[in-house]
Amino acid sequence: MERLRERINLAAKALETLEDVETIELPAGARRDVAIMRLVYTFEALWRALQRYLAVVEGVEAGTPKSCLRAARDAGLLSDEQTEAALKLVDDRNLTVHIYNDALAAEIFGRVPGHIGLMRTLLDDMSKKIEAV
Predict the structure, then answer these.
(1) CA torsion sign, 106 to 8 to 6 to 48?
(2) Domains in the chain, number
(3) Mind listing the pLDDT tens digit for each residue in 11-58?
């Protein structure tokens, strides 16, 4: 359980850095690029925390981000709508390798606020559930 708490705390700290992008004085293009990079490492920390949560609390082994998100839906952590949004987040994370494409970068950047809200909700829900255990 301690390792799970550590992973959730790491994901929460990563999410805080993503949320802080709005307060940083940067040119618009740089803000976009910083937000996208932080989105990538925040999601990585989040899905690893979720993977651990599922194993420790739910007894479910999931090896990929998408399988973790589907298992989170099955465990009641995500609604169907949230799961669809989370799967889109995985797709956005995967598309970041094509960031040289300005139009794609702008699209992903436009979805960052929604991704932040979803990740915040999932982290908060996991934290509440492990405190109840």
Answers:
(1) negative
(2) 1
(3) 999 999 999 998 989 998 999 999 999 999 999 999 999 999 999 999
The size of the chain, in residues, is: 133
> Domain residues for 40?
2-132
The pair of three-digit structure tokens given for residue 70, joined into one six-digit string: 């589907």
Q: Is 64 left (phi over 0), alpha (psi -120 to 50) or beta?
A: beta
The residue ranges of DSSP E strands in 6-97, in sequence order, are none
Express each pLDDT in 77-113 by its tens digit: 999 999 999 999 999 999 987 767 889 999 999 999 9
Say if pTM beats, i.e. exceeds, 0.90: yes
Residue 117 sits in a domain whose CATH number is: 1.20.120.330
